[in-house]
Amino acid sequence: MDQALEGVKVLDFSQLLQGPYATQMMGDLGADVIKIERIGSGDIYRGMTFFNQWIAGDESPCFMAWNRNKRSLAVDMKSEQGKEIIYRLAKDADVIMENFRPGVMSRLGYGYEDIKKINPGIIYCSASGWGDDGPYLSRPGQDLLVQSVSGAIMTSGKKSDGPVAIGTALCDQVNGLNSVYAILAALYYREKTGKGQEIKTNLLSSAISFQMQDYFTIQNLGTAFERPESNLGHPGNGAPFGMYQTKDGYLTIAMSPWPRLVEALGDDSLMQYNDPQVLFDHRDRIHRIIEAITVTRTTDEWLEIMLGLDLWVAKVNDQKEVVNDPQVIHNHTFVEIEHPKAGKIKVTNIPFTMSETPGQIKRPSPMIGEHGEDILTELGYGKEEIESLIADNVISIEKLK
Q1: What is the structure's pLDDT at 399?
Q2: Is 32 marked active-site?
């Protein structure tokens, strides 16, 4: 079947997470994503991992997670021959994605104004940490740093905990989504007008935007959020909205009618708290009272009782349990693909379906420069020219021996 972005050519200069996630999403939908990497070391993320553990000896799970459905070209971007290759690629490209610090691509000769001269219809997306100018311009921009500045780090946990990191690189991922959102809109606009454009996204703005309802409330009601001391799910909510220990794990209770929850818990005396202001003002105490009841049964027992009353509840899974969750299995959320070096690897599937143009995982993450010969051949380079470029260290090609 056709794919929605088939025929769209993306030059991906990005590294680490936010940019590679954006280009991977486009690759999942059929775009031809050419990842431009440094000779030798490639994307910085190739040299980073969790637990100091690697796949197939030296492959990074961090890199592999965000770089499927791409082809890799390892090229010396500073050399004249390397510049010629990139300009030839850019001439027919639809999208360029980069997340260097502001100004780096322009200094190298690959900024928006440089590429626009070659290709006026280019859609050029720059993703930064803080924005492309301003007082934080010279600072490094990274997910945890942005969690801190955006206030997101003070929204989880208990009041006495101090800052609590979200626990996943959510700012990077939200900005990746915002970048794709803007790129797809620009592609649609170009389809109508023939005009390309420059797009600038940044982690800080995205981190604040995913707290939109919180900041709307703060700025329009003039009331600051204060985290509770109990295990509640949001600093603006009262009980019962939160997580509760059970006999064998944890249960989450979301927005649920108080009388119906009281029926499930089997303690009519709790009806004395049936008032929204009381449930907020005394939320810590009420949380302790509810938890004293929930610890008397298993999570599954509570699920049977509460779901039977149509309450909004769920089991709290740790990440080891998620893969065995019945709904996760039913949704085919994880699939197995073949990697030329690592063999069979399990990956997170494309998180949506499309009836006419479904996404596909066609390629695992590439090795450094793995597709250089194919890409240059498509540009019109002959075999001897390619061999000469390899010999001169303008490009490098990593293949399995």
Answers
A1: 73
A2: no
